[in-house]
Write a structure and sequence with these properties.
The protein is α/β, with parallel strands linked by helices. Helix content is 33%, strand content 29%. It has helices at 40-47, 70-74, 91-101, 106-119, 135-147, 165-178, 191-195, 215-221, 236-242, 274-282; strands spanning 3-12, 15-25, 28-33, 55-60, 63-64, 76-79, 153-157, 183-188, 200-205, 208-213, 226-231, 244-251, 254-260. The radius of gyration is 21 Å and the shape is globular. The structure holds adenosine-5'-triphosphate (ATP) and magnesium ion.
């Protein structure tokens, strides 16, 4: 499988939501990371053919994707950032509805729905109306509808928004389990969500891909710039002024801080985290 995004730009009136995006995706888990308004959802909408980019091309297995390429569309499972219009459906009815849209036969649908509902711990609420769900329940329902009919390309827009730590871990493990032989794209601004499962991270800012690589490579790339140091509490404002501070811990001896600095100074260098990768490239 090869999904190729080539020179894709998207304009909404004056707003340049995507600016010459290039990506080469094969089997694996991709974290699409960027701040609010950076263009993640827009890129996803172009990839899924929900909207048409202003310029550039997207190809799947060397064929340009569009609404008529149904084989492609059928191989996508999308978890959108939110859904409206289903509040009065029960969870189970919603799942059958989506299964029907995807062309699943009743028997297949039932088998898959039962398995998925169980996997994300929704059995107890699945016969309740969606409007009575908590944010996390809705989120899990949205997640499993994306997996119906076993799609080859799975696209998740902010999948863990509103999940408690237990369900977040559960979801992350599940994504990891199903990722073999698939292209999985996870859009989020929470690095933790993709920390242990993404093979590759795409950093996007103002509609542009600013950096793209394996997590280890990104961490290596900022190694010279991440520092840690014990300082006096009274010096903290000065550090805040000069540097991006990634953490502050108040200890008995003073303030222990981690910060990003453009010059490489060996003595204070620390091992970077992915959060610091975010801070470095995206803020
Ligand atoms: N339908 C639209 N009409 C006009 N502007 C839009 C539309 N959709 C997105 N935009 C603009 O495009 C830019 C990118 O938005 P997008 O929703 O892709 O960001 P995002 O990275 O998904 O953000 P978030 O983290 O908040 O979900 C923003 O400036 C947004 O205001
Ligand atoms: Mg979005």
């Amino acid at each position: 499988m090869k999904l190729i995004v080539k020179n894709v730009s998207m304009k909404f009136g004056d707003v340049q939501a995507l600016n010459e995006v290039n990506l080469d995706l094969e089997d694996g888990v991709y974290g699409l990371i960027g701040p609010n308004g950076s263009g993640k959802s827009t890129l996803i909408n172009c990839i899924t053919t929900l909207i048409k980019q202003t310029s550039g091309t997207i190809t799947f297995n060397e064929k340009e994707v569009n609404q008529k390429y149904t084989e492609y569309q059928n191989s996508i499972g999308l978890m959108p950032q939110n859904i409206d219009g289903f509040d009065d459906f029960t969870g189970i009815r919603f799942l059958y509805y989506i299964a029907t849209l995807k062309g699943l036969l009743k028997e297949d649908a039932t088998t898959q729905i039962n398995r998925l509902v169980k996997r994300v711990n929704l059995e107890n609420v699945i016969h309740r109306k969606i409007k009575t769900y908590s944010g996390g329940m809705k989120q899990r329902l949205l997640f499993i509808q994306a997996l119906l009919s076993n799609p080859k390309i799975i696209i998740l827009d902010e999948p863990t928004a509103g999940l408690d730590p237990f369900e977040r871990i559960n979801l992350r493990n599940y994504i990891s389990e199903i990722s073999d032989g698939r292209i999985v794209i996870i859009a989020t601004h929470v690095m933790q969500d993709i920390e242990s499962i993404a093979n590759s991270i795409i950093l996007i800012r103002d509609g542009k891909v600013v950096k793209n690589g394996k997590p280890e490579e990104l961490i290596q790339s900022i190694k010279p710039y991440v520092h840690e140091k014990m300082i006096n509490e009274s010096d903290l404002p000065e550090y805040r002024n000069k540097y991006k501070i990634s953490s502050v811990s108040k200890l008995r001896e003073g303030m222990f801080i981690r910060y990003l600095k453009e010059e490489a100074t060996k003595q204070t260098q620390a091992i970077p985290s992915l959060e610091e990768v975010y801070l470095y490239y995206l803020t």
